[in-house]
Design goal:
- Two copies of one chain form a homodimer.
- The termini of chain A are far apart.
- With 209 residues, chain A is mostly helical.
- Chain A is built from nine helices and no strands.
- In chain A, α5 packs antiparallel against α9, α6 packs across α7 (122-143) and α8 packs antiparallel against α9 (183-206).
- The longest helix of chain A is centred in the middle third of the chain and has 25 residues, at 59-83.
- Chain A folds into two domains: 8-56, Homeodomain-like (Arc Repressor Mutant, subunit A); 58-206, Tetracycline Repressor, domain 2 (Orthogonal Bundle), CATH 1.10.357.10.
- The A-B interface holds A 31-32, 34-35, 114-120, 156, 159-160, 162-163, 166-167, 170, 173, 177, 192, 195-196, 198-207 and B 32, 34-35, 114-121, 129, 156, 159-160, 162-163, 166-167, 170, 173, 192, 195-196, 198-207.
- Chain A binds a DNA duplex (30 and 30 nucleotides) through α1.
- Chains A, B: InterPro entries: DesT_TetR_C (IPR054129), Homeodomain-like_sf (IPR009057), HTH_TetR (IPR001647), HTH_transcr_repressor_FabR (IPR050692).
- Chains A, B: GO terms for molecular function: DNA binding.
- Chains A, B: This is TetR family transcriptional regulator.
- Chains A, B: Keywords: DNA-binding, Transcription, Transcription regulation.
DNA sequence: TAGTTGAGTGAACGGGTGTTCACGGCGTGT
DNA sequence: ACACGCCGTGAACACCCGTTCACTCAACTA
């Protein structure tokens, strides 16, 4: 059975674990994580159901691991975007662009987060909302340095950050629901996101308390 | 003829149907509509599983009936609010107030819509998103008559309506997730919704194209 | 090299699932 | 007063589910 190279015990275990995570993510795209079964996941991963327990104590635990993995890619998206000088120059156009593109590439992860944020088990829901709260706070720090905002109360900044993240999530949901190979729809979503953000930013100047 | 007990055949049937709908709504509050079973619903409704089929061909069909029922209460909320002269006078404060109060009273229906909008079966999801699109269009008609908006393009008006409905849905989700008997949290959500709407409205004046 | 460890196996269990079917009983139209 | 129609019944079916157990056998360790 030695295909490529001899695998150490640890490598093999990690590989199976990853196969289980991939299988679960894949299956949950079709019907939602909450409705897939341990047996389906094991089967798709090419493993007997009992072997599942060598890696996770329950489907809930696997779900939490998936949350972590999904938010890791989300954070990477933000980090990469901040490094790009074009993004800072035309922040709104870039944000819409980056959002749609990244969601398209990591569709499975975003679909998982969007769905399970409200539809999942209690534990998974709480984990996702906690991560999103962290995300709002991170964005608030960035926003607080913008010209029109620098002397707002921190409550107000937090509010605006929530407004943005909320819309980001909603736009991500739209991209996820979007059928493949429809560049027209994609452009429409991008344009919609851009205009919504511009409208919100326009309100910045006149805001008081 | 008999005033108290005797029920006509039709009345009795409708009563069982309603019991099934109520049972499903109740159970879906605890764990989500997609994870409850036909047998659980029948049991809670006080009926044998096979009897279910006298009223619905499948759980999916029952789900669609629930979507209809839930949006009926949502529409009633808007209709009632428009009749109230106070609402037109202080439109934003009133909207936040009405939203939170109505969601609190009809928690089950809003929870159902919020969850199944993204987490439900394909058919249920599509039905809900269709209803929400109708709702956006209705709101767009109302918004188009506002002073700063009256000569916007219809695309722009639709965009703003989407922004509002999106936030309404998100705020409704928050109220639904809110534990009972926490007037402080409730006030916070209300205040957050109010400020978000004010910020968006501020952008109206300066909007072009 | 011999012994230990632990990832993966295959079978078995008890229980919940959707769906079907013949049947009983009661409101109903004749 | 009678026969019909239809809602609800209870049993049966064939599945799929999560979980357990003793097991194998290859990678590791001493």
């Amino acid at each position: 059975m030695a295909e490529s190279a001899a695998l150490t015990r640890q490598e093999q275990k990690e590989r199976t674990r990853a196969a289980l995570l991939d299988a679960a993510l894949e299956l949950s795209q079709e019907s939602g994580f909450a409705q897939i079964s341990l047996r389906q996941v094991a089967k798709r991963a090419g493993v007997v159901p009992a072997a599942f327990y060598r890696h996770f104590a329950s489907m809930d635990e696997l779900g939490l691991a998936l949350v972590e993995r999904s938010f890791a890619t989300l954070r990477r998206m933000i980090r990469d975007a901040q490094r790009d000088p074009d993004v800072f120059a035309h922040i709104i156009d870039a944000a819409a662009e980056v959002l749609v593109e990244t969601v398209k590439v990591n569709k499975a992860h975003f679909a998982f987060v969007a769905r399970e944020r409200v539809g999942g088990s209690q534990a998974v829901r709480e984990a996702i909302n906690h991560e999103l709260d962290l995300f709002v706070s991170e964005l608030a720090v960035v926003l607080a340095r913008l010209p029109n905002i620098e002397n707002w109360s921190s409550d107000d900044v937090q509010m605006v950050a929530r407004l943005f993240v909320r819309n980001m999530v909603a736009n991500a949901e739209e991209v996820v629901e979007m059928p493949d190979g429809r560049p027209d729809l994609e452009a429409k979503i991008k344009e919609g996101a851009r205009r919504q953000m511009r409208l919100i930013v326009l309100g910045f100047e006149k805001w008081r308390s």
